[in-house]
Amino acid sequence: MRPVSPGTGDALRLLAAATAARAVVEIGTGAGVSGIHLLAGMRPDAVLTTVDVEPERQQFARQAFRMAGHAANRTRVIPGHALDVLPRLTDGGYDLVFCDGDRLECLEYLAESLRLLRPGGLVCFAGVFAGGRTVDSAAQPTEVRKLRELLRAVRESKELVPALLPVGDGLLCAARA
Hints:
By secondary structure, this protein is α/β, with parallel strands linked by helices. 37% of the residues lie in helices and 25% in strands. The chain is globular, with a radius of gyration of 15 Å.
């Protein structure tokens, strides 16, 4: 488990505030660090839906959300594999999708995000620099090759307006046109 950096957290809070986010999906709950930042930027009546395969992590996150002062009704914590859960969520019902799950599934997360986002909504991916390995010309593991494919797919998409923010280990953001 790798929590987002303070800079990435600040960027997420800003993006949630700038979009006046009412509904956000987070793939990869972790211990709740990114969720706390997202909730801080979201509207007071907004709901964060967070998905993780590890229910134990989600228990820590629930506690972290409470300790940060967020009411239980502001979060919907769903245990399970993201690619099993995301198809059950509402098409076009979300303002922001934050992806910090299994990097091998990043292209599938992108496809699901496009379906989930309202026009003008944002999709963000954490850790796209992979410690500098995405720009390293040396042979790389599958995880890094998948991130390179993601970067290419977002850059070439006619549906997205992308930006790569140099915070943390790289935050790829794209607005759905």
